[in-house]
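#help-structures

NK: newbie question. if I give both the sequence and a SMILES, will the prediction place the ligand too? trying with flavin-adenine dinucleotide
OV: yes, paste both and it writes out the complex. here, I ran yours:
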Amino acid sequence: MSSSVLRRFMTNALSLKQGQGLSMWCPQYSSLNRIHRPSSISFDRFRRSFVVATSSDFANENREFVIVGGGNAAGYAARSFVEHDMADGKLCIVSKEAVPPYERPALTKGYLFPLDKKPARLPGFHTCVGSGGERQTTEWYKEHGIETLFEDPVTSLDIKKQTLTTSSGKLLKYGALIIATGCTASRFPEKIGGNLTGVHYIRDVADADSLIASLERAKKVVIVGGGYIGMEIAAASVGWKLDTTGTAIKNLEAGSDGRVAAVILENGYTIEADTVIIGIGAKPAVGPFEALDLSTSVGGIQVDGLFRTSVPGIFAVGDVAAFPLKMYNRIARVEHVDHARRSAQHCVNALLSAQTHIYDYLPHFYSRVFEYEGSARKVWWQFYGENVGDTVEVGNFNPKIATFWIDSGKLKGVLLESGSPEEFQILPILAKCQPFVDKDKLQNTSSVEEALRMAESSLHVEAAK
Ligand SMILES: Cc1cc2nc3c(=O)[nH]c(=O)nc-3n(C[C@H](O)[C@H](O)[C@H](O)COP(=O)(O)OP(=O)(O)OC[C@H]3O[C@@H](n4cnc5c(N)ncnc54)[C@H](O)[C@@H]3O)c2cc1C
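OV: that's the protein plus ligand as structure tokens.
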């Protein structure tokens, strides 16, 4: 991939879902008061108010707390329950997937390494290894008394009875419910070839296994979509030494065997392909929860700064939660792993302890490609803040690049590729403080190091004011 293609992918990749203009629902105390508050100060009272049924009508033994979803947020939430000593005999996780929560970003990174380059496989990357925590395998959940129901998605919620139904027909009871269902990959419609054999979407480990099976016999791969998923898969298939093209398309065509055979571009050109991977974004998985307040601006389930929905005892975290992004004063949904981890921990802490401070999140996102052994150049970058306003790009890939987002003179967001640990440490400080910067001077800097020094010096000017 050329450096201009990589640069385009990186700036497209910052998918912070944000509403326009002012927040419809701000984290002010008047709005918090509107919502029943079962957590923190009055936890004992809350527990009394939610009668935890003992009836054998219910398929789950642990009924005090139920988490729906078995992804990043669920894994980190489970760890927080254990830390509070509130998991054993009390917590149940019900998931669509067949395996315990894992660090989902690995699926388009280590998992897709060429097969001779030691690709990552489960149980290697169960949560919470991505942040240096314990590897929570099936045994870990058992040891901590956490009940797990796998491969059985929840299909409906009864708010009045505080029950859930699963696709196998199980009836589950909950005292408090945390929804952590994440997103599902957006699909191409069937009528333009979105369901053909050889067309892949990637959201979970089963999708990744199916893609690997295709890559093993692929000759020509086409990637559709210019976000980070597209970039990571394109990099992976280049690593597999496959002829790879990334593009926007009009439709897909099948060969005589019914398998995808060609991609028709908007301009009428045809590219032959035996494997097509679609990375065109994702939608919040709200299906069974439409009775809750859904966000009209960003999708997902609307929550307050403690991740409480408007229904007492029901919470939502991770990709599916539309929450007040305090520092920008608007409602947002963030589809990145840092938020999944932090929101889950914040929610459980608020639910189980006296913590009442509202979530104050600084958007953060990272990606890494070409990491396998023998790769000529690893590409890895981090972003902090928001990608609004004009951009100033400094440097090239030799040895690194940075992009600054400047709005009304203020530095709002910053992306750095191949920075040193010290340089990466400056990014959140810049994005949080949003100093005024001279765009022209920044543009005229001759290196990333100089640009970062200049941005950092604006912090001192700001502090002296
Ligand atoms: C391939 C890939 C690569 C990524 N790479 C990066 C990256 O490099 N950097 C980054 O910051 N972020 C990355 N992300 C995003 C990050 O993984 C997500 O933001 C994070 O996983 C969200 O956590 P979550 O728990 O909210 O959702 P998920 O991790 O998606 O978990 C949702 C879980 O809920 C389950 N579920 C859904 N519906 C139901 C139901 N009805 N009943 C029961 N279970 C259900 C799902 O099967 C899944 O187990 C990547 C995402 C993907 C898909």
